[in-house]
Amino acid sequence: MKVAIVSQNNYKLIKQIKSAGLRIVKVQPDIVISIGGDGTILLSERLYPSVPKLAIKTSSTCRKCQYMPGHLKVALELIKKGKYRIVEEKKIEAKFKNHRLIALNEIQLHNKKPTVAIRFSVQANGFKQDNVIGDGLIVSTPFGSTGYYMSITGKKFKKGIGLAFNNPHNIKTKGIVLDENKKINIKLLREEAWLIRDNDDNFLSLKKNDRFKVFVSKEKAHFIKF
Length: 226
Prior knowledge:
Elements: E1 2-7, H1 11-19, E2 23-24, E3 31-36, H2 38-47, E4 53-57, H3 72-80, E5 85-96, E6 99-103, E7 106-111, E8 118-124, E9 127-134, E10 136-140, H4 148-153, E11 161-166, E12 175-178, E13 184-190, E14 193-197, E15 204-206, E16 211-225
Parallel strand pairs: 1-2, 1-3, 3-4
Antiparallel strand pairs: 5-6, 5-16, 7-10, 7-14, 8-9, 8-13, 10-11, 11-12, 13-16, 14-15
C-alpha cells in the first residue's frame, strides 16, 4: 500500500509510519496520513483530493482529528489488513470566470482593505439578499461549519450549505442554511475583494460588478475511520 504523509516535520511519527512497512510516496498514494491540526487536513485535501485520509492530532486546534499519536500503531496495522471504513464528506465549488475553486471547509468573499466594507448581493432559488454591507461572506460545508462559519453564527449544521455574513452592517441575519441542491450566485457591488478557499494563500482578486457562483461539488473528501 502506498502512503503519502502531510506533516509539519513530525519526525517521530513519520519514522513510525515508515517502520510499519508501508511504501511512502509523494504521488498517487492509496491513502494519506495527515499529522497536525485542521489546517493540515485542509492542506492534505488540496494536495491529494479525494484520496482517503487518516487524521492524526498533534495540534491543540483540531476539531476534525479523531485519532491521537498513541493510536497510530494500531491504526497502521488495521489499515494494512484493510479493516477500516471510509466516511465521505461533501465539498463546495466556486466558479469565477475561468477559475474553479474547490473547498472542504468554505469559500470566502472577503474585503480587500480591512478599513473598507464591501457591498454584495446573494441570490439562490428561494433566497435573496441585496446590497449587503460588511466584511464579506462565508459559504460553508457541514464539515467546515465548526470553523469560520460557527465563529460568526455561533452554530454548526449537518446538512446543506451555510451562509455566514461577516460583520454585516445593514442586515440582522448573520447566518442561514440553504438546501444543498441550490446554486448560490454572488455579485460584488462595490469596492474590491478577495475570493478565497479554505486556508489556501492563493487568493483571486475581484472588482466591482464581478460575479461568481458556489454550489456543492461532485468531488468528495474521504476519511478513514475504525
